[in-house]
Amino acid sequence: MNTSASMLQRRDADAADFPFIATWLGRPVTPAEHGERWRVVAAADGMPRAALRLVPAIGLTLPRVSFHVGCVVHAARELGLFHRQRTLQLGHDHTGASELADIAWARDHQGTGLGLPEQAAALRALLADALDCIVQQRGRYAPTLIAELPGPRDAAGHSPLWLGLGRHFYRGDPAAAWATHGPAWRSHLAPLLPQQMVYTSFLPPVAEAAIGGVAEPARLLLELLEDAGFRYGHHVNVEDGGPIMERALD
Amino acid sequence: MNPTRFLFRAAGPADIDAFERAAADSVIGITTLPADRARLAERLERSAAAFASADDASGEEIHLFVVEDLERPPGQRVVGTSGIAASAGFADRFYCYRNEMVVHHSAALNAGNRIHTLHLCHDLTGHTLLTSFWIDPAYADTAAPQLLSRARLLFIAEFAERFSDRIAAESPGLADEAGRCPFWDAVGRRFFDMDYPQIERLTGGRSKAFIAELMPHSPIYVPLLPDEAQWAIGQMHPVAELPFSILLDEGFDTETYVDIFDGGPTVDARVAMLKTVAASRRGPWREASAAGGAATDWQLVATTRRADFAALLVPGAAADDALPLPAGAAAHLRLAPGEAVRSAAFAPAGVNA
Can you give the pLDDT at residue B293? Predict the structure, then answer.
């Protein structure tokens, strides 16, 4: 199979693509709205390989929350104490930013597994296409572009950060809330979460370690985002602690 | 034991042995008494100076008291200690955690949550602080601990201008024999890498403020703490139950504050609202006619002299005119004829005086 990027088509998604995208995401597809676009990279035969939702500005209707991962130093020279503490502060720091949302891609092609190089080629083309789309309509997008990555999961599929933090503040099931509300559920979750700064040393070690960590299946995407100029900006998503990657557009 | 055998009085430098015994006998963190003879002697000198001082109060004063069993041989009479610090956190800040409940709600998720948080605060800075309570265990069930704790309040009522109109008292929190303290282990240890006895030695009588400044200044979300630490919040060490119950009976509030180190309850009140203070009255005394029969009413009676303050318990009801006192009681208090005394009805719950 030819996997060179030149053979990949770039186009807006159509109705036939959405069942594939939903499979890759493992949840229903969020429809594009407010000037958003679903973009797809497809193989020569038209089969979709990767997709994302290009969002001009987030958090302007429904507040978009994240944790800022900060640092506080407690030092006392007379006691010989010097402690660096990590902190989580709930906020809406990315309000107005543009986003590459729901980035998803195929792991196989008509039942045949796709190798990492082929997956990477599709993702690289997808990210390049998104940046091209933004350049073509530059005025519609913000100075900052973000992309969220999912945080780590344990063997049972649970997020260690959720078990150590979130579940103490919302007793419901995050998967059920996703099913009902889609990605907006995190905005609905926000008023239940700690509004004041939390020292991460109060969390269990596994939860602390999950902050800013990436789920194993998303490692490839992390690499390609970094190749495309994205950096970790010390913000993580409030549910599982996955990093929010940032890139300046100008 | 007959309540009339106990005498409460201002402590002096000669009481050093009793204070040393109290400090040695106290669990970690129970009193503000250092287990160090030289420092105890210095405390007693400061206290004596405070009782004798003709100057206006600065807030720095400490007043230490003892209770004596007058039926013991001279030199072995002291069976308990107590104290008052005029102003908590004098010249610095007095730190404690304030219990607060925050209610979170999400209409979209149709969910709400009532969350217990601890806020580092200075609320009690400047309050008068009750300190240094110790009673010989053999006297725990007598009127002595009652006298020891409550007579302090008459001193504060009589010399109100030297104290705050608000008052607080700390109680030691849960800790085991080895000094392991669940609240400290879950909170303070994360910022200090030291065990609780170590930190107590380190602060040893100094203000806790410099330690508090190393603690998180944002609220602690209690649900994030281990169960054992959550349970320890507001719980006291068993040895503190007796002095705590006396303060509770006086009307102290136990719900608002806990200690930043061990999570023990720090109680607070308005001085004027305390049972003994509210019931106290000032007036001359007169010699009582010979008493007959068993006493059912008791009066806590104190001198109105600051330098050699003393108090004791006498049988009898409050009188409208001069307070009737048995000759022996007047002698113990070294009262001149017609001298003013301050007294309050003494009827502690659960004590068969």
Answer: 53
